[in-house]
Design a protein that fits this description.
- The protein has 409 residues and is mainly beta.
- The protein has one domain: Porin, CATH 2.40.160.60.
- A 14-stranded antiparallel beta barrel has the order 2-4-5-6-7-8-9-12-13-14-15-16-17-18.
- The termini are far apart.
């Protein structure tokens, strides 16, 4: 069973995608919970997600929510992520593009050094449609001809974090969060024998996910030019309701089960080479999850981990020339996916990143952008590889909310 499903997951989409126009997230997210979307905005992406230890006193959408404890104004952060890729299998290629729902965070200072955060972000997402042409010929059929199997996969697991960040002193900031976890994954297969004597056959699996989890983050100033960042996301114990539907309704069935996503750990160091140049590095780990509901991935899941490094020239003063005062960000990261295909070989992402940003004219705020160029998987190890470009655009705006004074006459 495992070999049959892995063959379909790994080989068929790429052979067919060239002519059928497959589209969506990374092809390696097919048939599982999706492609992992890291927290943060364009600044974090430009630094290859190594920025956990870097403070940001003007942004609400950051990789380390403990940094929001320094905000003194109501701040809105929004990030839009767009992906373009080409999947390669042998001599076949398939071009794809996709965008996610924007991540958003609003930070409300309730007291000096105490900030409440509310937002929305995608944890995992996957979307693809493709068709598989084939030939019908055999003793089980009374005719010979063509057939088409159409496949659709659409899934998104998202989180609504509610957190409180506290700046204990000038050296340490912490943040605690409650996460409302929701989402759904839908897989549908349509068998069309393209013969009027045979009906079209449909089969569909719909899964809905719900859970509550928690998280903690830390930002510590060890020295004027040395920072430590750490984050922890607790285990997510999803309750899953599953509905399986067929063309023959008497075969339909429902069920429920638990799907556990292990806790995540992240740690980062950042050091100031000079007043404007900072180097940062990070390590991120989540142990192998279970295959509940995805039996085709039994014994094909491993630990997910990421190692990254980034270099940033922070923004200069307004009195400096334009290109001298804008920030410069570059980085590199290597990520090991949960999926190990076709037979225990890990799927590895390798990306180079760069980005910058500008201040919004006329008021506090900024627009940041970043680009990620890299490859997911390897033709030699996984039989497939995907060349990817991602674009992130973030906007941060803030407003000072003050109690209005009554007029005196």
């Amino acid at each position: 069973m495992t070999g049959k499903w892995l063959h379909k997951i790994i080989l068929i989409p790429f052979i067919i995608a060239v002519s059928s126009g497959a589209r969506g997230q990374s092809v390696f997210s097919l048939n599982y919970i999706g492609e992992h979307s890291f927290r943060g905005g364009a600044r974090d992406a430009g630094l290859a997600y190594s920025s956990l230890a870097l403070p940001d006193s003007a942004a609400a959408l950051t990789m380390n929510p403990a940094s929001t404890a320094s905000l003194s104004r109501v701040t809105l952060g929004l990030n839009q992520r767009i992906m373009f890729s080409t999947a390669v299998y042998g001599e076949n290629e398939a071009s794809r593009n996709n965008y996610q729902l924007p991540a958003v965070v609003v930070a409300f200072p309730v007291h000096e050094g105490l900030v409440f955060n509310l937002g929305y972000r995608t944890r995992f997402a996957g979307k693809v449609d493709f068709s598989i042409p084939g030939e019908v010929d055999g003793p089980g059929y009374g005719w010979t001809g063509s057939a088409v199997e159409e496949y659709s996969h659409n899934g998104s697991l998202y989180s609504v974090p509610l957190g409180m960040a506290w700046k204990i002193n000038k050296w340490i900031s912490v943040e605690a969060e409650l996460h409302l976890e929701r989402g759904s994954i839908r897989d549908k297969i349509t068998e069309n024998l393209q013969n009027s004597e045979y009906s079209v056959a449909n089969s569909e699996i719909e899964r809905s996910y719900s859970a509550t989890s928690y998280g903690f983050s830390l930002l510590a100033r060890l020295h004027s030019r040395l920072r430590l960042g750490a984050t922890y996301d607790g285990e997510i114990n999803y309750s899953v309701n599953e509905k399986i539907s067929y063309s023959l309704s008497e075969l339909n069935r429902r069920g429920s089960y638990d799907f556990n996503l292990p806790p995540m750990y992240g740690v980062s160091l950042a050091g100031g080479i000079s007043a404007r140049w900072w180097i940062s590095t990070a390590f991120w780990l989540r142990e192998a999850p279970e295959a509940a509901g995805f039996e085709q991935f039994e014994d094909a899941l491993g630990d997910e981990k990421m190692i990254s490094v980034g270099l940033e020239r922070v923004a200069g003063t307004v009195s400096q020339p334009f290109f001298t005062r804008i920030p410069i960000r570059i980085g590199y990261y290597q990520e090991y996916w949960h999926t190990e295909i076709p037979a225990g070989e890990p799927v590895i992402s390798r990306f180079f990143t760069f980005g910058s940003g500008i201040e919004l004219p006329g008021g506090p705020g900024s627009v940041d952008f970043s680009f990620e160029f890299g490859r997911i998987g390897s033709s030699g190890a996984n039989g497939i590889e995907e060349n990817v470009m991602r674009i992130n655009i973030s906007i941060n705006v803030s407003e000072a909310w003050k109690r209005r004074e009554g007029r005196r006459y």
